[in-house]
Amino acid sequence: MDRHGIRAHSKLTRKLPSAFLIDWDETITKGDTIHLVAEASNATKKRDPPFEYYVSVYNRAYDDYKQEFLTKRGEVNSIEKEMDFQRGMKKVEMSSVNELCKLKFFEGLTVQNLVAQSSKVSLRENFLDFLGKCRLYNVPVIILSVNWTKLIMESVLRSHGFSEDSMDIQYIVNELEFSGGVCTGVFDSSRSVRTGIDKLEYLVKVRSTLGDVCYIGDSSTDIPCLVNSDAGIVMENGSAIKSLQKINVSLSSLSQFDTLEKDVVYYGNWHDISAHFFKNHLDTKKTD
């Protein structure tokens, strides 16, 4: 990686990567799920101030930071500026997180409250098929998310037969602190995944251990990993596409290429991803 954090790695062909790092909200799921964590907390008791207060704290911090950045640096129209902008997002993300902890919004929330929310999560089409193929060929899948807990994720995927226990999947995600199954109102300080830069740091750690990595995401928080992984894939309707175009990142349809170049981000859906990485392997299996 150069001083701007831009990747300098070899292209990845249909050869399977050493690991898939995958975002959760709106990449694996059809919609955002962080609101389900807030709903679970509201189910335990009426919260005052309500969750909307913390959203407003975040929005004010974001608007102030964006205006400050635009005044000093101008429009975010290059990879360098995008990386710099994302480096400054830590204070924005922590504005609402610190307030949630200060006012103990999640205090009294139980593990059972969160697990019950898993029934409200809808997965994108063909993701489970992709996950099954990763299991078949022993390719590690790591969910890397800025979400606030893995408990809902675990419950959803376990219901479909995939779990950390069977080594199908791993999670790198923030976690609320629990004592006896009840939330203390603060976050576990042992892990912090708040920004796209935080995600990139974990990607670098995984790569140093496992080797080449394919990153799959959908939004602006995923951009540092999309442009720094050995293969970056954005969901075909992901909000990151417009941002990537704005900073002049080359975009191509995954379904049209056998070889993934290091300076291109590819777009597609879970069917396209499975077809790209597993077609040759499945064809070989049929002829064995």
Automatic annotation (TrEMBL):
Tree of life domain: Eukaryota
InterPro entries the record matches: HAD-like_hydrolase_phosphatase, HAD-like_sf, HAD_sf
Coiled-coil intervals, chain numbering: none
Family matches, as Pfam families: HAD (PF12710)
Signal peptide feature range: none
PANTHER family: COLD TOLERANCE PROTEIN 1, UPF0655 PROTEIN YCR015C
Identification of the protein by name: Piso0_002667 protein
Source organism: Pichia sorbitophila (strain ATCC MYA-4447 / BCRC 22081 / CBS 7064 / NBRC 10061 / NRRL Y-12695) (Hybrid yeast)
UniProt lineage: Eukaryota, Fungi, Dikarya, Ascomycota, Saccharomycotina
Gene: Piso0_002667
